[in-house]
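TEACHING EXERCISE
Course module: macromolecular assemblies
Task: Read the component lines below, then compare them to the predicted structure of the full complex.
Student: A.B.
Group: 4
Components provided:
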Amino acid sequence: MFAMIIPAFIVGGAICVIGQLLMDLTKPAFTPAHVLVSFVTGGAILGALGLYEPLVKLGGAGATIPLSGFGYNLAKGAMDAVGKRGILGAFSGGVEASAVGIAAAVFFGYLMSVTFNPKG
Amino acid sequence: MGNQTVVFDNPPVILSSYSVVGPKEGQGPLGKTFSKVWNDQLNGEKSWEVAESKMLQEAMQGAIDQAGIPKDQIDVMLAGDLLNQLISTNFAARQIALPLIGIYGACSTMALSMAVGSMLIDGGFAENVLVGVSSHHDTAERQFRAPTEQGTQRPMSAQWTVTGAGSVLLGRTGAGPRITSATIGRVIDFEQKDANNMGSAMAPAVADTLVNHFHDLQRKPAEYDMVVSGDLGAVGLALAGEVLKQSGIDMGTKFTDCGVMIFDASQDVHAGASGCGCSSVVFAGEIMQKIKMGELKRVLLVGSGALHSPTSALQGESIPGIGHAVVIEA
Amino acid sequence: MAKQRLRQPTVSVTPEQYKSLAQQYTPKPTIIKNVVRAFVVGGLICAIGQVITNLFAAVGLARVEASAAATAMMIFLGALLTGLGVYDEIGKFGGAGSIVPVTGFANSIVAPAMEFKREGYILGVGSKLFTIAGPVLVYGIATSIVIGIVYSFLH
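Instructor-supplied answer key:
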């Protein structure tokens, strides 16, 4: 039950520190939107190069919960699917592998937006 | 007179002033000087935009009632806010139902409207002019920056948009402080780009307006009891002071800023306040009170505006600034 | 870009001089403090994610499945906390520590959507859900497709 918690904390924290440094050192160019996009793209590229996999093994949720993990999942899904379906897999694999996350984001996002009002 | 300044032959009188603010402003150090403090940002309206327009309407109606002048003797209203197409102003004007001139000068709108109103009166085009200016923290945040519930860190140079509406009624005759001269500013752009540091974008414009004001009238800062900018915030105020010093003008200790006055350090606003509601409520509240009590005899109000839009910011344009000054004498 | 030529009198500071002046007067972000906070908050969020993953694994889900379920759960929590008006406070403290995890992604979906509810359910909520999520999905999915295509040519 409590396995991997410390590694997850350290790896996850370290990934977030990279994001913080990107924002603080490049102000005002880098907004949270830029951070999220670059982490997804960066995670996908690192995943494709096989550099993100060890991080997932090492940090567990520490590597999959940050948005770079989402990118890694997309890339991994695309590459796995290419093996099975050829070039069509490049188009189906990424979204398939991250379908749960995308659908959850849309569904819960909508649900909460409709339920609550902003406090200001 | 001079390049940018007009001196009024028959200085218009400020017949009344009224201010309405949100809860955070009410808790600030100037809380007691405002005519009315709302308990929350919505005040029972269905959106922040409607609330802002109601707030402006309340402030303008308050100023009319306080002056005791029948509405049909008011020739025109000059009003402005921060939102696209001046919706708060236009919707408030729908209820006030006076001839309207909408004015956009970003945070400088209060000083600019007072200057233009004085010109109309001194020029003989109007007997009484109603001025009203508002801004709302939440409407401005979502238009200019991020949604309010987004978890972002505001940098230390950021300013907090004030929720507030201030209004004054100007007249040709009557009792009260007078607007004796006005300096209309130029747009100055020293290529600052950070919308979270507007003070630094506006400081050169304020400095330029002050340089011209003192030059045109052959005056020195010491001839004023208070020189107050609205709203440079702490960062911009320090910068404007430094720029003026390097230009050979020592502002002394009477140079302050509405955005610095309205909140105190414990309110987590970082560099101070902004938004055209800020200088309008600080002027209609605190400053008018002090003038009336005789504590201030001659005040120079320099409204400062950051003339950018979310679009221009996204396209990488720098933030042009402007400063308009009016002199109020007891 | 601006290249203004101003009639005298004006301030005797050039835009170039002003730039360094402005930098000098602008408070620096407190980088060390921000980094420590980002590390702690980001680490904690991921640790919670790990606990949830472990819970799902304990009830018999495979590793990949448990991880996906935990991601969905974290999205739910991030969205809920945003709705309750708590997440922006976490964000103010944690900076990137609360932006980078998938909970921050959920926050970036709910915050604009909730605020634009007054503009209607289709063009308000429906479109604003994707203010930030849109670019993230566009670049994420496009990258994965390019990677997939390159990968298919290499094999």
